[in-house]
Amino acid sequence: MKKPLVLYILLLFWPFTFCFAQKTTQSAPPIKWPVGIPWWKQNNLRVIQTNLPAYEAATLNADSLLKDLEACSANTLLINAGGIMAFYPTQLDFQYTNPYMKGNMLGDVIQRCHQRGIKVIVRFDFSRVHESIFKAHPDWCYLSPKGERIINTDMYVVSINAPYVQDKAFKIIEEVIDRFAVDGIFLNMPGYQVNNPYEGKYHGIDQNNYDKKRFADYSNGLALPTEENKADAVFQKYLEFKKFTVEDWSKRLHTLVKSKSDQIAICTYLDKYVDIIRHESQTNSLLYWPYMSSDNVGNAVNSFPDHIISNSSIQQISFQSRYNAVEPEEVSIRLYENIANGSGLDISMMGDMRGYEDERNYDVIKKIYAHHKKYEPYFGKYTSVAKIAVIAPGSWPSGAPMQEYRGIQLMLKEAHIPFDIVEDAQIEHLSDKIKDYRLLILPDITYLSKASVQVLKEASQQGVNLIATNQTLFDNPEVLFQLFGAKIINKDHEGSGFYLTPDNKDVFKRFTKQKMLFWKFNLGLYDLSGTDKKMLPILSKGRPGPPEIIGGHEPTGYYAMGLKQHEKSKAVLLPINLGRLYYLHGYEEHKNILLDVIDAVFPEANQLLQTNAHERVEVILQEYIKNVPENREKKTKDGLIVHLVNLTGFSGNTYFEPLPLYHLLFKIQLSFKPSKVVAMVNKQLVVYTWKDGFLELQLSQLNDFEGIVIDR
Question: What number does CATH give the domain 386-605?
Answer without folding.
Answer: 3.40.50.880
